[in-house]
Each structure stands twice: as C-alpha cells, then as structure tokens.
Amino acid sequence: MEQLYKKEISLFKEKKDWFSFLALVGLIAVLPPFLSDRILTIFTMIGIAIVSVHGLNLLTGYCGQVSLGHVGFMAVGAYISAVLTSKSGLSFWIALPLAGLGAGVAGLIFGLPSLRIKGFYLIMSTVAAHFIVIWLVIQLHDITGGSDGLAVPKPKIGSLVFNTKAKYFYLVSFFAIISTIVAHNIARGRVGRAFIAIRDHEIAAEVMGINLWIYKLQAFFVGCVYAGVAGALLVHYFGFASVDQFPFIDSVWYLAMLIVGGMGSTFGAVVGAICLKLLDELVTIVGPILAKAFPAVAAQFAASLSLIVRGVIIAVFLIFEPRGLLHRWDLVKSYFRLWPFSTEETD
Amino acid sequence: MTFFLQLVVTGFALGMIYALVAIGFIIILKNSNAFNIAQGHFVMLGGYLGYTFLIVFGMPLWATILCTMAIAALGGIVIERIALRPLIGQPIISIIMMTIALSSIIEGLVTLIWGGEYKTYHGVLPTLTITVSKISIPSEPTIGLLVSATAVLILMLFYHYTKMGLAMRATAEDLQVVQSMGIKATTVYSLSWVIAFVVGVLGGILLGAISGVMTPLAEIGLKAFTVALLGGVNSIGGAIPAGIIIGILENLSAGYLDPLLPRGGLASVFPFIVMLIVLIFRPHGLFGLRKVERI
Fold first, then answer.
1. Which domains does chain B have, with CATH numbers?
2. Cβ of A91 under 8 Å from any chain B Cβ?
3. CA–CA dist A26, B220 (Å, integer)
4. What's the domain count of chain A?
5. Contact indicator for B66, B128 with CB cutoff of 8 Å
6. What is the pLDDT of residues A62-109, one digit of tens each?
7. Quick one: A214 exposed, middle or buried, by C-beta within 10 A (0-12, 13-18, 19+)?
8. Which of A178, A287, A328, B183 falls between 20 and 30 A from B119, CA-CA?
C-alpha cells in the first residue's frame, strides 16, 4: 500500500478518522441530558484522569522516567488554582494556565536529579516529591487551608457558570480532547521521538545528539503541566480542595492505567484511564453485594476489595499482557484482517 | 544537653529498626536490581501476624517468631514463584510495578483480616528503663537493636562466607554468566525473597512490641529506603550506620525544628529530604559501589 509520509504521520490519517472524531464530539455534546448525575460524575472523573494520565504517559511511557509523585504535582496545580481563584479572585481561565505552569516548574525542580540518577532512584525522588509537596501544603495552612480544606469557586465564562454536573462534564471533555490532541502531537513530533530514544537507550540517544538534560527536563515539565491542569480541574469540580484528595496511592493507580492501556501510546493511556476508572466503579457496586454475602468481614470489605482488585489487575497485566490492552486490540485487528489465513500470534 | 542525648538514644534505637527493614531492600536490590516497595508491607504483615500468634492464640514469644518466620519464608517462595519469576528479563519498571501490586494486595488482605486497626502487644518484651545520668534507656528498643544487629551480622557472614551467598552476589553481577556456571538462578531469587520477607516480618514483630502496628506502618518501607540509599544500595553493612544516622537525624529534627514550625510534622518528611540530598550529591551512598555505565 503506497502512502505519502506526510499522510502516514498526520493526526487524522483517513476520512474515517475524521468521522470517528466528529462522532465522539457529537456524542459528548448530545449525551449529558440523558445521563444521571452519577454517571456524569464517573465520566467527569474519567476525563480528569485522561488529562492527568497523558502527562504521566509523556513522562513515563515515552521518556521512560518513572514518576510515583504524579499526584503530588496534581496537588501543586490544584492548590495554585484554588488559592488564586478563591483568595485573589482571579478568573479560572487565568488561574488554570498558571496552575499548569506552577506544577511544571515544581516538576522541573524535582526532575533536576534525573540526569544523575536513574531507574528506581528516580522513582524514590519522585516519591519524596509527593510527600514534601503534601507536607508543604499542610505547613502553609494560612494560605492553603491545609488539612481543613479550602472552598474553591466554580469556573465561569461571562454569565455561564459551570455549576451543574452536565456543564462541568462539557468543560472536562473539552480539556480531555485538547490534551489528547496535544499529547499525540508532542509524541509524534521531534520531541516525542527524542523522548522515545532516551527511553530506549540513554547513552545511544546522547551519542545521536539528543541533549539528555533538556529533553528530560522537558518531559518532566510537560508531564507536570498536565498533572497541574488535571489537579485544578479536580478541585474546581468538587468546589473544595483538601490534601485528602491527593493520596499517594493514586500515583500508583495512574501508573497502573498506563500499564493496562499500554505504555508509550496516547490512545493506550486513554483506554487505560477509562478501563480502570470503570473498574473502580464496578468495585464500589460489587463491594456492598459481596459484603452482604460474607457478613463476617463486611465492615472492612469495601476498602480491602478495591486494594486487592487493583493489585491483582496490575499483577495480571504485568505477567500476561505487559504491552497493554491497546496492543492486544491491534493483534486482534490484524488477525481478522488476514483471516482466514492468519496465524495465531502476529507480533 | 540531656534533651539532646535523650533524642540521640531514642533515634539510635529507631535507626536500628530502619536498618533491619532496609536490609530487606538491599537483599532484593543486590539480586534483581529492582527495589521492593512491598518491603514496608512485609513489616506490617509481620506485626499483625505477631499479634495473632501472641495475643489471639496466646503463644509464647519464641514460638511466635518461629511461626511468623515460617509463614514469611513460605510467602517469599510463593511470591517469587507466582509473581516475580515470569518477569525475569523484563524491564526493571515491570518488577517495581509488580512489587507495588504486591503491596496493594498485602494491604488489602491485612485490612480484610485485621481491619487495619491499631494493635499492640506492649509488654511482651521486658519493659525496664535504665536511667544513666538523667537519660532513660528503655529496654524494648534496646532489644530491638540487639536483634537487628544480630540479623545484620548473620546476613553479612552468610553473604561473605557461604557458597550460596557467593552465588547470590554473582547473580546480582551477571545473570547469564551465573547460569552457565551451573548456579540455579531461580533458587537464588527465591532465597532472596525469602530472606527479605523474613527480615521484614522480624522487624514487624519488634515494632509491634515497641510501638504497635497499624496500616500506615507500611510507610516505614519508604523511609527505610532512604537508609538503604544513604548506606549504599549494595552494602549490607552500610545499612547500620545509615540507619542510625537517619534515626538520630529524624529524632533531632522532630525535637529541635518542629517547635519552630507552625504545623510540625517534620519528622515524617525528613527522611525524604535527606533522600533527595543523597540522590543529588552522592547517589551511590556512603558505602556503595560507584557504577560506571557503558554502551
């Protein structure tokens, strides 16, 4: 099949890509009035998770710098936006970019050691970042409200206030789509290629003329900008900011989204975010039913079930599907394209 | 001065337990180059198992320690066989994610079985307090200190003077060479997980007796990593001085700096700040080997 290179790397390769994109936008625009508040909440959370996980995907999936402090950087963005809108009365639309920028700068600071240290050392420095950020938030009680929390106004444009679930869902969908396009564009361009080269072999990348320092810091900056925006969206949705919204374990969960969806693939990240958020919801529905079946351990059942399910999902994917769901989907597609002449595994 | 010395003494004992937990890390690190986030959860599990055997079943201390260690050994073999063996040859991040998954599962199981409540068996170890010129030295942490030191000594001897220890060190160096020399790498991996788990639960029982056990105890694993890092991640002996340094620094910062801050709580982040400083200025730690990387 002959294809022009320009077409091969373009965002929308064929007409049907445009159609599916427009169909998705149409669906998002039409659906909310028919959905219950609970389902809209789930979708909004999925949207925020997508924004956040794109950042982690650029940093970890593409550039190979594993971060376990992602939620800490979300907290940075969240608190910058919360404080600016509630205390200084700034508009959400000015506070949000500043939140992204602030989180990005925090990412730069904690990304600085990434040139000297690698692998699990770097992971630990991001863990340190999380705990130091949360500690600082609690310390700056007068500004951030610390563990008491801080009321955050809802975003608005002119007279349109995003105060209902449906309206906020539109807002989050907008950001989710924009962030997906931007992430895809970063990944397919020069910067993305440099990230992949660094992930695959650092020294070889350096020999090829990729400035490790600049690109690694860029990865940290971009990844944390995403985290900051996602964090800001999260607290504005709840109308309330508190350190309890940013538990350490959620960083692990974002990494799990990448593993389930497929690391180093923009759409894999989206698939992972959707799957794991839905799984979470499933656990909250199934938990009480199972708790009734086993009354002896009913009290702690819900909390422990989600922990165990999360752990098992990560473990199962690591062992049986290390390249993620998206990869499996590609295999299935290529299997049926050649059917009935396909072989079992077409890797 | 008395206040200072008192803080140092308490920190010293705390640091020995950090060292014991850190050794679990180092054993896994030396063997599979991956670090075990679940180490803190091994400690937590050990603490709860100790509670079950001591208080619920009313067993004596020696039997409790034996039973818990036996369970831990079994658990180590099972974990290695089911979860980690399929990942041999995979990138390190896979192994780390697997230990994260394990930590999540262990925490879930502990919450399910013990409800994540605070349990303590204070008084199982003799509770004497020796006072030396106004500084009180409690006996429980002192026993913890002795147990930790003994465990470290045994492990060091094992690593340096037995054939298995040599095999373990060699596996860390080069998996393929080791396999062609006729050493069964899977046995080595298995054993390293057994040791890490056993050391972890031992620390858990000690902590359970000294200060009690609850689910957030698992965070000690993250703090102990600072210890491993400061001592040098491939040096078992380095864990002891590093543990003591971190323990004392943490206590001193809690004693002197916390009153200056409006909200306190510096002790909980202090190890992480030390960790960042070590990572930036001396990534191979005080006693570790500096690694030179080639293409």
1. 2-281 (1.10.3470)
2. no
3. 50
4. 1
5. no
6. 988 888 889 999 999 999 999 999 888 888 899 999 999 999 999 998
7. exposed
8. A287
